[in-house]
């Protein structure tokens, strides 16, 4: 109560102009922040800085730890590790003078080729919600505001600033809204609205979803911030519940012609200041109630106060881990967390026994980018680390046998939103660089190196960016041909894939092992070597189904993706990801939740121990330690007229087991997996017998137990 009184007293002292300054961004005089609110010195309110983004801190002019892509964090299925990553990012934000982090991104992955899947977490809402909550809890434990984004149904980059996601209420409630609900339940301080529309209404104007659902039904009491240049109206947004316009200042690019066309996916940066004078005028005219401005300012001040910004210092974190005053950057423990996430999020897709590598094996390290770490995708989440390790460096420092290197084909160039801007770079961003002037790659050299080694390890990558979807799920350039040529020369060929989401692996029957490492960040080569040589168990599991492109529910018709007349119809309803593949029995490559360990696990019988708790004993029956991700799926009873997914993820738990060790694992079952949303009556749990499937993936059930509801 005392805090509330304090905020109310402060609000009463602020002039209208001062309150307006709290709801519209301005230029950061230090130039480090992505978004900035100026100080109001007379009232003791310090400046407030918001910074990107999910993979680490992108403060202009500064380096920071480059954590793995969010999808790698999600692949760990380890919410405690997500929390530790969040706390590290929070400490780095503090060290760089920032107050709010524009992370995590929790949009449920609908379209496999979406350019931002690497910044998101999962095709499943329970999984995305749990990992997102871990990240939020961590960020905020370091007294930095977390910003969950992009609310809601921002599921593709093509036409992202204009497209309307046409989705029915059940689909929104069961799939796309829940991770945001979990974020609110985790106490997130801020929510960022998406650029797109939902059922025709722009998200920053969406009174029903922002005002009624988020703030009303869910009781969100933090502030809602626009995406950058994502505000379309003053009155509509203010009355819908938007609290802060960012960045608030227009950028007028000077390309010499005075007229330019914003490329698809790039918002019009000349449109800014809608919460400046126009908001004052709308209050004067009565179109926006004056107390709406008070509420906006109250919400912003509330978060500043909550994280100690209004009392001249920051509140002490309760775990004693964080030095909140000064933060911490590029420390050894942050490097270790980045390496931990990269290794733990690594998914062993296939292994005929060639892995782990023998210490003394002679290894040919092959691939067009083996001399570069794969930090992330392009766009607002780009990071610049102090320290990074390339694939070659990582393997050279671990190998005992001889290591040779060959590029094989021209380098795969990264693509970036920043190169799409008409006033910054050219538009030639297809991910390949056919004239590689840095070196002269030769396929023959790669084949010779492979033939002469005991093992060939080929590193391949895709190239993705915010603001543009991938054209296909194929690897860019001639990487498929490179893998096939190497595999023909050496039967012990291991492929290490770096991708932002699912990719097609046409040679997968011809190679000995395949590892998926997402975008591993600064620890790249070290994490790869740790898993390849078995120093770390590959304990990542797939947060997205891998399948041929034509098999996904968004593969056609066009109205489903990329949309027709700026509308994208979610006709598949709740049947995306594994829900679709289970329903259709469609052809898939690797199921959701899949990933091998170097150890082997035996499951005992599952037992329901409380309404929402199931236990199962898991034993490591191998002669080496390993990490298992125990997954629980719920199969509903069949009910007339209810078209439900075959199974839905209800919970998961990662467990580290020594050779021969057995543990009883307790899983909490999320209500979402039991419920369905019926438009006229709301959430319903049908009475009947539900089967809880416990296993290693959505397609590898080890034991089941029935539960009546
Ligand atoms: C992105 C946001 C990001 C913002 C600020 C936008 O283009 O969609 O995720 O936080 O820019 O950089």
Please tell me about this protein's structure.
The protein has 709 residues and is α/β, with parallel strands linked by helices. Helices cover 25% and strands 19% of the residues. It contains 18 helices and 25 strands. The strands form six sheets. It has a six-stranded mixed beta sheet. The chain has a six-stranded mixed beta sheet with strand order 10-15-14-13-11-12, with helices on both faces. Strand 22 (676-678) and strand 23 form a beta hairpin. Helix 1 crosses helix 11. It is globular, with a radius of gyration of 25 Å. Bound molecules: beta-D-glucopyranose.
What's a concise summary of this model?
With 709 residues, this protein is α/β, with parallel strands linked by helices.
Q: Helix and strand layout, with pairings?
A:
Blueprint: H1 2-13, H2 16-21, E1 35-37, E2 48-51, H3 70-75, H4 79-95, E3 100-101, H5 125-141, E4 145-151, E5 164-166, H6 169-176, H7 178-185, E6 190-193, E7 197-198, E8 201-202, H8 207-217, E9 223-225, H9 235-240, H10 277-284, H11 290-306, H12 332-344, E10 347-351, E11 363-366, H13 391-398, E12 403-406, H14 417-420, H15 443-452, E13 455-461, H16 479-489, E14 493-498, E15 513-516, H17 524-532, E16 567-569, H18 577-584, E17 601-610, E18 613-620, E19 626-635, E20 648-657, E21 662-668, E22 676-678, E23 682-684, E24 689-697, E25 700-708
Parallel strand pairs: 2-3, 3-4, 4-6, 5-7, 5-16, 6-9, 11-12, 11-13, 13-14, 14-15
Antiparallel strand pairs: 1-2, 7-8, 10-15, 17-18, 18-21, 19-20, 19-24, 22-23, 24-25
Helix pairs in contact: 1-11, 4-5, 4-12, 5-7, 12-17, 13-17, 15-16
The structure holds beta-D-glucopyranose.
